Structures are given as structure tokens and as C-alpha cells.
Amino acid sequence: MHDENSMIKTVILKIWNEDIKRYYEDGKIAYEGDLDFRLGHYLIKNIEKDGYELFAKPTLLNLGHYSPDYLICKGGEITAFVELKHSNYPYYQGDFYKFVDYFKARNNFSEKLLFNPVTGDMGGNEYKINGDVQFYFCVIAKEDAVAVDCESIHDELKNDLKWMNNDQSLIDEVLGRITVLYGKIGNPPEFGHCTF
């Protein structure tokens, strides 16, 4: 992992394990919108000073109209995709399948992400996917939900991706770029992360 992606990972882990955990334990993250707001606030506060850009829910027209929760970019490149879930038993597989599609498209993808306030169109330079792109899945769910069980997620995804006729090297490379940040609803709540 390049130094810049390592820095982003360090920042996201710190935000998750300190700020998001604190707000959750204080009862201020009851819904996905709360999680979205708090994470976005702290990402902007911590990464923009280092020249990163944060895009919230951009529609990627050149990639099946997907709309990730966040894109983290620097120097015209997408360095990280971030997806969020907050539900008792969330459906999460679709987000991981999108991670695979993003990764497959990395060599042929470009998208204008900046809005032109004069014309109302998307403008500016086209952003490309960085070759060392990382994927972050941030989830708060019941402690017995599969979405917060890293081993179950890994095994299920590996089997699903094989079933979808993806080659093993692609599966291993994508899984190696995913970090799951979880909050387990329980007594007491448990926050942590895993990387496959």
C-alpha cells in the first residue's frame, strides 16, 4: 500500500475508533444518515488539509450509474471508495460487488466529478481510479449480523465471487484492498476493523 493510502487508512481508523464510536455510545448515531453526517464531517476535517477531496454520493455515469457513499480523491485520482451501512441486519453484498466492479474498471475509467456552477453541468478534469485504490466498508449492525463478522464476510464473498466466474487472482487482489470497519450493537458496543 502506498504511503498516501496508508495515511487515509490511518485517518479513517482513527475517526471510526474514536469519533464514530464516541457519538454512537452517546446515542447520536441512530440511523445511517447520522453515520453518514458524522463520518463525512470528520473526513473533511482531517483530509482536506492534506490536499484530498471528498465527494459525497457522486453518481458515476461511466460506471453503471453507481453512487458510492464517498470518494476520496487526490491529484485527479480516486484513492478510496467508502460505503456505509447502519441497520440491524444489513444487506451488504451489493457494496462488495460494486468494489469488484470499481476495481475491474480501474484501467479504463474516468469521470468528471466537479460541478460547474455556471452551466449546471459536470465539468473540470476527469478523475481516474488510482492503481492502488482501497475500499472501506463502514457498518453498524447487531452483534450477530453477518455484516459485522469479518470471517463470515470474507468466506461468503470469496465463494460468491468465485461463483460469479471471477478469476482467483482478481478475487484475492480485491479482498486484499478491503477494510471493514464495524460497530457491533450490543452490551457493550464493540468497534473495530479487519482487513482481508
Could you name the key traits of this structure?
37% helix; alpha/beta; 196 residues; seven-stranded mixed sheet; 5 helices; single chain
Helices, strands, pairings?
Blueprint: H1 3-25, H2 32-47, E1 53-56, E2 70-74, E3 77-86, H3 93-104, E4 111-115, E5 122-142, H4 150-163, H5 168-175, E6 178-185, E7 190-195
Parallel strand pairs: 3-5, 5-6
Antiparallel strand pairs: 1-2, 2-3, 4-5, 6-7
3D architecture notes:
The chain is α/β, with parallel strands linked by helices and 196 residues long. It has one domain (3-195). It contains 5 helices and 7 strands; from the N terminus they run H-H-E-E-E-H-E-E-H-H-E-E. Strands 1, 2, 3, 4, 5, 6 and 7 form a 7-stranded mixed β-sheet that branches. Helix 1 (3-25) packs across helix 2. It is globular, with a radius of gyration of 17 Å.
Low-confidence stretches: none
Helix share bin: 25-40%
Overall residue-averaged pLDDT value: 91
Strand elements, count:
7
Q: Supply Rg.
A: 17 Å
Order of secondary-structure elements: HHEEEHEEHHEE
What is the distance, rounded to the nearest whole angstrom, between the alpha carbons of the first and last residues? Answer: 13 Å
Number of discrete domains:
1
Oligomer: single chain
Strand content: 25-35%
Identify the overall geometry: globular
Structural class: alpha/beta
Number of helices: 5
Largest sheet geometry: 7 strands, mixed
